[in-house]
Structure formats: structure tokens, C-alpha cells
Design brief:
This protein has 207 residues and is of the alpha+beta class. It folds into two domains: 4-65; 80-205. It is 39% helix and 19% strand. The protein has helices at 4-26, 34-65, 90-99, 119-123, 154-164, and strands spanning 80-87, 112-116, 131-138, 144-145, 169-171, 176-180, 192-198, 204-205. The strands form two sheets. The protein has a four-stranded antiparallel beta sheet with strand order 1-3-7-8. A four-stranded mixed beta sheet has the order 2-6-5-4. The radius of gyration is 26 Å and the shape is elongated.
Length: 207
């Protein structure tokens, strides 16, 4: 990204050269001073460089958010990613259907809602007695690649996503989506079209 101090230098440099040009023009009356013209074009060039640098930086950030994982869902249906989320109790399952998914605090990547493309992986979090959610997520939803998120620690990456509104993050090692959030606060999963509840054999359950 463009460093903040580089941006300030470019801004003040442009302002200074423009003011210098104005002062010089004010003192020469009707005559054209080549130095004034020179500094005016220097200011214009500096402003142009600053504009395109910031524009390129913003484009890079948007590309990182719009990145798409090169994976195939276990079940291909229409234009949706199909992912799964396991929970060990009926209360958790019914609560999620009523109020939304609440982030867990004990996950590998911090406070987030974890959904896996692998049904068996999600089922392992149901502790052998719970339920598995089947989530349908629109494939046109912008996705950030976890490995490309700035930050040296799990918490730093999480905070970066929350600050920038990066709601859906793909983690490649375990092939899962992360939706970062806060303890006790339900998360709005981006692109979520619908949710089904399954038993541990993958059969639909009505709540």
C-alpha cells in the first residue's frame, strides 16, 4: 500500500509548487515567466502521479477482496458454494436458526464462524450427538484469501478483516470459510442464501 507519509509529501509538494507558480505569476504582470510555467507543470505532474498511485493501491485491495478460491464444493448445485457447520446441541442448532450464527472463541483462527466444505470435518464438531448446518452461499460473493490478509498474527488478520468489512474469508489448508466477528454477537454471513439442518447421517431435520 501507499505509505501515509509518502502521500503527505506528494500532497504538500503539489500544493507548494502550485502556490509558488501563483506567486510568481502575480509578480510578473502581463509577462509570461518560463519558471512559473515550469513549476506549474511540475505541480500538475506530481498531482497526477499521486492520483494514479492511490487509484492503483485501491485496485489492489479490491482484487484481494474479490479473489475466488480454486476449489470444487463436495456437492455442486446451482450457483452456490455448499459448506457445513457442526454444533453439539439442539439448543445451539435452534438458536442459530432463530438468531443467526454466533462466533466461537476457541477456533484456530480466532473468534469466527467456521464453515467447512467437508461434511465429515463439520460433523466432527457435533461431538457425535449434535447437528450439522448446510449453508448455501452465493458464488458471486466477494471472498478474501486468508493467506493474503495483512498481519503477522491471527488476531491482527481478524482485526484487519473487521476494519475493512471483509466478511467472507477462505482458508486454504482446511478448505473452509471464516466469518470473523465478536463473542456473543451473531454474524451476518455474506452471500448466505439459505440454511438447512441435517442429522449426523446427513438427513434433513426440521426445526
Amino acid at each position: 500500500m501507499v505509505l501515509w507519509w509518502t502521500t503527505l509529501i506528494a500532497i504538500f509538494g503539489s500544493m507548494g509548487t502550485i502556490l509558488l507558480s501563483i506567486v510568481m505569476l502575480a509578480h510578473i504582470g502581463d509577462e509570461t515567466d518560463p519558471r512559473a510555467i515550469f513549476w506549474f507543470f511540475v505541480a500538475a505532474a506530481a498531482t497526477g502521479v499521486l492520483y494514479f498511485a492511490i487509484k492503483a493501491d485501491n485496485s489492489t485491495a479490491m482484487r484481494s477482496v474479490s479473489w475466488r478460491p480454486t476449489i470444487t464444493a463436495p456437492v455442486v448445485q446451482s450457483a452456490y458454494w455448499i459448506v457445513y457447520h457442526g454444533t453439539p446441541t439442539w439448543n445451539n442448532a435452534s438458536g442459530a436458526m432463530r438468531e443467526g450464527f454466533v462466533p466461537g472463541k476457541d477456533g484456530t483462527y480466532g473468534i469466527a464462524v467456521y464453515t467447512a466444505f467437508d461434511f465429515d470435518l463439520a460433523r466432527s464438531y457435533a461431538s457425535g450427538v449434535g447437528y450439522v448446518f448446510k449453508l448455501f452461499i452465493d458464488q458471486n460473493t466477494p471472498i478474501a484469501n486468508y493467506s493474503q490478509i495483512p498481519g503477522e498474527t491471527v488476531e491482527a488478520k481478524r482485526e484487519h478483516c473487521l476494519r475493512n468489512g471483509w466478511g467472507l474469508v477462505y482458508e486454504e489448508q482446511f478448505k473452509m470459510f471464516l466469518c470473523f466477528g465478536y463473542i456473543g454477537v451473531p454474524v451476518a454471513i455474506p452471500g448466505l442464501n439459505r440454511v438447512e439442518v441435517l442429522d449426523l447421517q446427513g438427513k434433513p431435520v426440521h426445526i
